[in-house]
Amino acid sequence: MARQGDAPDGRDEQTRPGRPRRAHALTSRAAILAVVVCAIALSLAYPVREYVAQRQEIAALQAREHKARKQVEELAQRKQRLGDRAHIEREARRRLHYCMPDEKCYIVLDGGTDDEGRARDAGPQRRPPWYETLWRSVEAADRPH
Predict the structure, then answer these.
(1) What angle do CA 62, 66, 69 make, to 5 degrees?
(2) Are 34 and 40 in contact (CB under 8 A)?
(3) What b-and-e string marks burial along 58-76, b requiring 16 or more CB atoms within 10 Å of the CB?
(4) pLDDT band per the 50, 70, 90 thresholds, residue 105
(5) CB 98, CB 92: distance < 8 Å
């Protein structure tokens, strides 16, 4: 009686001329293994991509947090400076041109230009006070072009 792996002429299939059965079995096993590896790779691709995206988002949020902490520190320093009376007086004099009641303050309106209206090179120029800028804009609006 012939075994299941034997050829009809009595020879074993592995000794039959042509391709042996082992190579065919190895090829199908390799194909199955390749399909399994591809399935695993495809199933891991999305979670790995999400992990990388989350890491990038965490890095961006940490940079924003660092920037916000720096801004908070600067604002705390500014708050501390604004609590100092001397600083407030200095800023009021510089920005608003305020004077103390016992002082006489003068503002030279025409001291920063020469005869043709150009600024003189007498060092750093200060901005004119706000009311002077406002008055100049009103005068300019009244002049015909």
Answers:
(1) 135
(2) no
(3) eeeeeeeeeeeeeeeeeee
(4) confident
(5) yes
